[in-house]
Write a structure and sequence with these properties.
hydrolase; 6-phosphogluconolactonase_DevB; NagB/RpiA_transferase-like; alpha/beta; globular; 6-phosphogluconolactonase activity; Probable 6-phosphogluconolactonase
Length: 264
Protein backbone atom coordinates (compact mmCIF):
# COMPACT_ATOMS: atom_id res chain seq x y z
CA UNK A 1 0.00 0.00 0.00
CA UNK A 2 1.23 3.47 -0.86
CA UNK A 3 2.43 5.62 2.02
CA UNK A 4 0.98 8.71 0.33
CA UNK A 5 -1.54 9.41 -2.41
CA UNK A 6 -2.78 12.72 -3.74
CA UNK A 7 -0.72 15.71 -2.58
CA UNK A 8 -2.04 19.02 -1.34
CA UNK A 9 -1.22 20.50 -4.76
CA UNK A 10 -3.45 17.90 -6.44
CA UNK A 11 -0.66 15.82 -7.98
CA UNK A 12 -1.07 12.07 -7.62
CA UNK A 13 2.19 10.81 -6.17
CA UNK A 14 2.28 7.31 -4.74
CA UNK A 15 5.21 6.55 -2.46
CA UNK A 16 6.13 3.05 -1.31
CA UNK A 17 8.34 1.65 1.41
CA UNK A 18 10.35 -0.31 -1.17
CA UNK A 19 10.43 -1.40 -4.80
CA UNK A 20 8.61 -4.67 -4.05
CA UNK A 21 5.56 -2.86 -2.66
CA UNK A 22 5.68 -0.44 -5.60
CA UNK A 23 5.79 -3.37 -8.02
CA UNK A 24 2.75 -4.98 -6.36
CA UNK A 25 0.66 -1.82 -6.66
CA UNK A 26 1.89 -1.08 -10.18
CA UNK A 27 0.68 -4.49 -11.38
CA UNK A 28 -2.75 -3.83 -9.86
CA UNK A 29 -2.87 -0.35 -11.44
CA UNK A 30 -2.04 -1.70 -14.91
CA UNK A 31 -4.49 -4.59 -14.52
CA UNK A 32 -7.33 -2.24 -13.58
CA UNK A 33 -6.63 0.08 -16.52
CA UNK A 34 -6.47 -2.91 -18.84
CA UNK A 35 -9.84 -4.20 -17.63
CA UNK A 36 -11.48 -0.78 -17.96
CA UNK A 37 -10.07 -0.21 -21.45
CA UNK A 38 -11.06 -3.64 -22.73
CA UNK A 39 -14.57 -3.12 -21.34
CA UNK A 40 -14.85 0.29 -23.00
CA UNK A 41 -12.99 -0.21 -26.28
CA UNK A 42 -12.32 -3.93 -26.61
CA UNK A 43 -8.57 -3.35 -26.65
CA UNK A 44 -5.74 -2.07 -24.41
CA UNK A 45 -3.01 -0.05 -26.15
CA UNK A 46 -0.02 0.30 -23.84
CA UNK A 47 3.37 1.88 -24.57
CA UNK A 48 6.42 1.05 -22.48
CA UNK A 49 9.88 2.42 -21.93
CA UNK A 50 12.85 0.32 -20.81
CA UNK A 51 15.26 0.17 -17.92
CA UNK A 52 14.17 -0.91 -14.44
CA UNK A 53 10.54 -0.27 -15.38
CA UNK A 54 10.26 -3.72 -16.96
CA UNK A 55 11.43 -5.57 -13.86
CA UNK A 56 9.01 -3.49 -11.78
CA UNK A 57 6.19 -4.75 -14.04
CA UNK A 58 7.26 -8.32 -13.36
CA UNK A 59 4.35 -9.21 -11.05
CA UNK A 60 2.02 -9.05 -14.08
CA UNK A 61 3.57 -12.35 -15.17
CA UNK A 62 2.63 -13.95 -11.84
CA UNK A 63 -0.64 -15.07 -10.28
CA UNK A 64 -3.29 -13.82 -10.39
CA UNK A 65 -2.56 -11.46 -13.29
CA UNK A 66 -1.09 -14.05 -15.65
CA UNK A 67 -4.56 -15.64 -15.67
CA UNK A 68 -6.95 -12.75 -15.01
CA UNK A 69 -5.61 -10.10 -17.42
CA UNK A 70 -7.17 -10.33 -20.89
CA UNK A 71 -3.81 -10.58 -22.62
CA UNK A 72 -5.35 -11.29 -26.03
CA UNK A 73 -6.68 -7.71 -26.08
CA UNK A 74 -3.32 -6.06 -25.36
CA UNK A 75 -1.38 -4.18 -28.04
CA UNK A 76 2.15 -3.33 -26.91
CA UNK A 77 4.25 -0.43 -28.18
CA UNK A 78 7.45 1.23 -27.06
CA UNK A 79 7.54 4.92 -26.12
CA UNK A 80 11.21 4.79 -27.01
CA UNK A 81 13.62 2.24 -28.37
CA UNK A 82 17.31 1.93 -29.01
CA UNK A 83 18.07 1.31 -32.69
CA UNK A 84 19.96 -1.92 -32.17
CA UNK A 85 19.25 -5.53 -33.07
CA UNK A 86 16.32 -7.05 -31.16
CA UNK A 87 18.75 -9.58 -29.71
CA UNK A 88 21.08 -6.84 -28.41
CA UNK A 89 21.40 -6.28 -24.67
CA UNK A 90 20.46 -2.59 -25.13
CA UNK A 91 17.16 -3.40 -26.86
CA UNK A 92 14.04 -2.41 -24.92
CA UNK A 93 12.20 -5.04 -26.94
CA UNK A 94 14.57 -7.76 -25.70
CA UNK A 95 14.29 -6.50 -22.13
CA UNK A 96 10.50 -6.60 -22.33
CA UNK A 97 10.41 -9.95 -24.09
CA UNK A 98 12.66 -11.58 -21.52
CA UNK A 99 10.95 -9.95 -18.54
CA UNK A 100 7.29 -10.09 -19.56
CA UNK A 101 6.26 -10.99 -23.10
CA UNK A 102 7.70 -14.51 -23.01
CA UNK A 103 5.77 -15.23 -19.80
CA UNK A 104 2.23 -14.16 -20.75
CA UNK A 105 -0.05 -15.09 -23.69
CA UNK A 106 0.10 -11.86 -25.71
CA UNK A 107 -0.78 -12.31 -29.39
CA UNK A 108 2.52 -12.01 -31.32
CA UNK A 109 0.97 -9.77 -33.98
CA UNK A 110 -0.09 -7.37 -31.21
CA UNK A 111 3.55 -6.70 -30.29
CA UNK A 112 4.56 -3.62 -32.28
CA UNK A 113 8.34 -3.25 -32.24
CA UNK A 114 10.54 -1.16 -34.52
CA UNK A 115 12.30 -2.30 -37.66
CA UNK A 116 15.82 -2.89 -36.36
CA UNK A 117 17.41 -3.25 -39.80
CA UNK A 118 17.16 0.38 -40.92
CA UNK A 119 18.47 3.78 -39.82
CA UNK A 120 17.05 5.60 -36.81
CA UNK A 121 15.31 8.09 -39.10
CA UNK A 122 13.73 5.36 -41.21
CA UNK A 123 12.78 3.33 -38.13
CA UNK A 124 10.96 6.33 -36.63
CA UNK A 125 9.10 6.98 -39.91
CA UNK A 126 8.02 3.34 -40.19
CA UNK A 127 6.95 3.19 -36.56
CA UNK A 128 4.84 6.32 -36.91
CA UNK A 129 3.23 4.79 -40.03
CA UNK A 130 2.31 1.66 -38.05
CA UNK A 131 0.76 3.77 -35.30
CA UNK A 132 -1.18 5.87 -37.84
CA UNK A 133 -2.63 2.70 -39.38
CA UNK A 134 -3.72 1.46 -35.96
CA UNK A 135 -5.31 4.82 -35.16
CA UNK A 136 -7.34 4.51 -38.37
CA UNK A 137 -8.58 1.08 -37.30
CA UNK A 138 -9.22 2.34 -33.75
CA UNK A 139 -6.83 -0.07 -32.11
CA UNK A 140 -5.41 3.17 -30.71
CA UNK A 141 -7.81 5.97 -29.89
CA UNK A 142 -7.30 9.49 -31.18
CA UNK A 143 -7.15 12.61 -29.05
CA UNK A 144 -10.22 14.83 -29.25
CA UNK A 145 -8.11 17.99 -28.93
CA UNK A 146 -5.34 17.16 -31.43
CA UNK A 147 -4.65 14.61 -34.13
CA UNK A 148 -2.34 12.67 -31.82
CA UNK A 149 -2.84 9.03 -30.88
CA UNK A 150 -4.37 8.54 -27.44
CA UNK A 151 -2.76 5.50 -25.86
CA UNK A 152 -4.65 3.92 -23.00
CA UNK A 153 -1.46 3.93 -20.93
CA UNK A 154 2.09 5.16 -21.42
CA UNK A 155 4.53 3.86 -18.80
CA UNK A 156 7.74 5.81 -18.35
CA UNK A 157 10.84 5.57 -16.24
CA UNK A 158 13.03 8.58 -15.52
CA UNK A 159 16.80 9.05 -15.58
CA UNK A 160 18.89 10.94 -13.00
CA UNK A 161 18.99 13.85 -15.49
CA UNK A 162 15.18 13.97 -15.65
CA UNK A 163 14.85 12.39 -19.10
CA UNK A 164 11.82 10.30 -19.95
CA UNK A 165 11.52 7.99 -22.96
CA UNK A 166 14.42 9.29 -25.09
CA UNK A 167 13.52 12.93 -24.45
CA UNK A 168 16.68 14.40 -22.95
CA UNK A 169 17.16 17.84 -21.33
CA UNK A 170 17.91 20.52 -23.90
CA UNK A 171 17.63 18.19 -26.91
CA UNK A 172 15.89 19.59 -30.03
CA UNK A 173 13.50 16.60 -30.11
CA UNK A 174 11.80 18.11 -27.04
CA UNK A 175 10.44 20.90 -29.26
CA UNK A 176 9.05 18.57 -31.92
CA UNK A 177 5.35 19.26 -32.38
CA UNK A 178 4.52 17.77 -35.78
CA UNK A 179 5.86 14.24 -35.63
CA UNK A 180 4.44 11.49 -33.45
CA UNK A 181 7.68 9.53 -33.43
CA UNK A 182 11.06 11.21 -33.74
CA UNK A 183 14.64 9.99 -33.77
CA UNK A 184 18.04 10.78 -32.29
CA UNK A 185 21.49 9.96 -33.58
CA UNK A 186 23.23 11.84 -30.77
CA UNK A 187 21.66 10.55 -27.56
CA UNK A 188 23.69 11.79 -24.56
CA UNK A 189 23.24 8.34 -23.11
CA UNK A 190 24.45 5.38 -25.19
CA UNK A 191 23.50 3.90 -27.53
CA UNK A 192 23.32 7.11 -29.59
CA UNK A 193 20.65 6.07 -32.12
CA UNK A 194 17.11 5.93 -30.76
CA UNK A 195 13.48 6.52 -31.64
CA UNK A 196 11.08 8.19 -29.23
CA UNK A 197 7.49 9.30 -28.87
CA UNK A 198 7.32 13.09 -28.91
CA UNK A 199 5.90 15.12 -26.03
CA UNK A 200 2.55 15.78 -27.77
CA UNK A 201 1.98 12.02 -28.02
CA UNK A 202 2.96 11.41 -24.39
CA UNK A 203 0.67 14.23 -23.26
CA UNK A 204 -2.26 12.94 -25.34
CA UNK A 205 -2.43 9.60 -23.50
CA UNK A 206 -5.44 8.69 -21.36
CA UNK A 207 -3.07 7.67 -18.59
CA UNK A 208 0.63 8.28 -17.99
CA UNK A 209 2.59 6.69 -15.15
CA UNK A 210 6.15 7.70 -14.30
CA UNK A 211 7.88 5.03 -12.24
CA UNK A 212 11.07 5.94 -10.36
CA UNK A 213 13.18 4.20 -7.74
CA UNK A 214 16.51 4.89 -5.98
CA UNK A 215 18.03 7.87 -4.20
CA UNK A 216 20.17 8.71 -7.22
CA UNK A 217 17.07 10.11 -8.91
CA UNK A 218 15.68 11.96 -5.88
CA UNK A 219 16.87 15.41 -6.99
CA UNK A 220 15.39 14.97 -10.46
CA UNK A 221 12.12 13.82 -8.86
CA UNK A 222 12.10 16.98 -6.74
CA UNK A 223 12.73 19.22 -9.76
CA UNK A 224 10.03 17.43 -11.77
CA UNK A 225 7.28 17.40 -9.14
CA UNK A 226 7.77 20.26 -6.69
CA UNK A 227 6.91 23.84 -7.63
CA UNK A 228 10.37 25.29 -7.19
CA UNK A 229 9.71 28.60 -8.92
CA UNK A 230 11.68 30.73 -11.40
CA UNK A 231 15.07 29.43 -12.39
CA UNK A 232 14.14 25.79 -11.97
CA UNK A 233 15.46 23.75 -14.88
CA UNK A 234 12.60 22.51 -17.03
CA UNK A 235 13.27 18.79 -17.06
CA UNK A 236 11.55 16.62 -19.67
CA UNK A 237 9.84 14.74 -16.83
CA UNK A 238 8.28 18.02 -15.65
CA UNK A 239 6.97 18.56 -19.20
CA UNK A 240 4.91 15.38 -18.92
CA UNK A 241 1.52 16.97 -18.31
CA UNK A 242 -1.33 15.08 -20.01
CA UNK A 243 -3.75 17.54 -21.56
CA UNK A 244 -6.87 15.57 -20.61
CA UNK A 245 -5.44 12.36 -19.23
CA UNK A 246 -4.32 11.31 -15.77
CA UNK A 247 -0.72 11.39 -14.53
CA UNK A 248 0.45 9.23 -11.63
CA UNK A 249 3.94 9.07 -10.15
CA UNK A 250 5.05 5.77 -8.57
CA UNK A 251 8.06 6.33 -6.29
CA UNK A 252 9.90 4.39 -3.65
CA UNK A 253 10.89 6.25 -0.46
CA UNK A 254 14.44 6.78 -1.68
CA UNK A 255 13.32 8.46 -4.91
CA UNK A 256 10.82 10.61 -2.98
CA UNK A 257 13.28 11.58 -0.24
CA UNK A 258 13.78 15.18 -1.42
CA UNK A 259 10.15 16.08 -2.13
CA UNK A 260 9.01 19.00 0.04
CA UNK A 261 5.76 17.40 1.10
CA UNK A 262 7.18 14.02 2.02
CA UNK A 263 10.83 14.48 2.92
CA UNK A 264 11.72 13.75 6.52
Amino acid sequence: MALYGTRTDGKEVKIYENADELSTDLAEYISELSEASVMERGVFAIALSGGSLISLMGKLAEAPYNKTVDWAKWHIFWADERVVAKSHADSNYKLTKDGLLSKVPIVPSHIHSINDTVSAEKASEEYEFVIRQLVRTRVISVSDISDCPKFDLILLGMGPDGHVASLFPGHPVLAQKEEWVSFLTDSPKPPPERITFTLPVVNSASNVAVVVTSSGKAEAVRLAIDDIGPGCPLLPAKMVQPSKGKLVWFLDKAAASKLDEYST
